[in-house]
Amino acid sequence: MSAAKAGKKRPAASAAVLSEIKLPPLHEARTGSGLTVRVAPRGPLPLVTMRLTILSGSAVDPRGKEGLADFTSQLCRRGTQRLSADEINEAVEFVGGALFSGASEDAITFGVTAPAEHASAMLDVLAQVVIEPSFPAAEVESGRARALAQLANDLDDPGLLADRAMVRALWGDHPYGHDVAGSAGSVGGLTREDVVRFHRERLGPRVAQLVVVGAVEPGAMTEAADRAFARWSGGPEVAPSLPAPERAALAGRVVVVDKPDLTQSQVRLGSLAFPKSHPDYLASQVVNAVLGGGFTSRLVDEIRVNRGLSYGAASYFDPSRASGSFQISTFTKTGATREIISVALDEARKLRERGPKRAELEKAKVYLCGLYPLRLETNESLGGAIADTWVNGLGDDYLQRYRSRVMEVPLPRAAALSARWFLPEDGRTIAVVGKAEEVVPQLEGLGAIERWKVADLG
Questions:
Q1: What pLDDT sits at residue 1?
Q2: Which of 15, 83, 161, 402 has the most CB atoms within 10 Å of its CB?
Q3: pTM of the predicted model, to two decimals?
Q4: Is 91 left (phi over 0), alpha (psi -120 to 50) or beta?
């Protein structure tokens, strides 16, 4: 290499991704009821997003009542002690706002977006929804009917079936081992008493955080939150503690969900990994971009470009608060099911044995760092990111330092974690949704095959 080339400066694009993201200052306070409030003032648009996150998700659903956390989150907005469901909707829509609620494995989230001038009024509505839902019997019945209809529709979606099969096969009886929405059997048995009890026992200010992002003054917003949530009490003192998954007992499963009408197979390959707070999380994200986390990844090149087996293939880590998984997701025509699985397994094996190449790693770093600011552009996305750092214990500097930490991932570390986390042979699980009579013979030699019916996932 010539001296002139050796002395060339880093390209502007690479230098740009090293700069820290400019985020609004985060003001933190605690209300008299014990609720943590974090306010990020942000302009110039006169809008605000308020997001209340409670550490009580589907992982704490009682056995046999899977889907209860999500069901409760939806019913909370269907009437309070002072407002009917229609009145709640009218109050929010009148000011041009939007109300949302839902559950994940680890948390229930309630939120509202609105013009900043109506922030205090919308905070009062949000507090009512969280603190004093009335759970009218008629709303419980209609909510159950809606949930069951959606679950029935899901059974016609091969991709969703494959995702659900992988969750159950990978996690087994662990609290993460069921769909957030539950099943037809569990949801069909949920009662108003179940919802009232879950709300009373699992929702409380000491395991909750309110994030406010937008054109607001932190002091005034904190005072408004203190007033709105002054009556909130009860609930758990600390966040739920979940057991570690039984990795050895769950490894090696090969599940085929029989859907005879399909001409394609939906394929999922997975292994248990780590929680989002794990030291390997960020570095693994970089390596995953090499394997299957982007359109120029190895999996896309080999499966789509070189072999024409599928239009799409992707890999990703799905970390939660207590643990997590690594998965590869793809699909192909029925007759090529074994081939696409073999190709995916082979690409994972090569990554484990050799790690990424230096050029691949550097390209992945720039790719991730370039995308990251786009994920924080809106008030809603920044509020969600701030809440996520709290739920997963990532630290207050996580968002600010994301890009510099990504760029610092060294090649030896990337190689070491590649060997550990990317579908280890003694820990992989395979799930396929397709025409079983044609798929099962192709999977011989991959492990003991379990044949499931679609109804088993309902």
A1: 41
A2: 161
A3: 0.92
A4: alpha
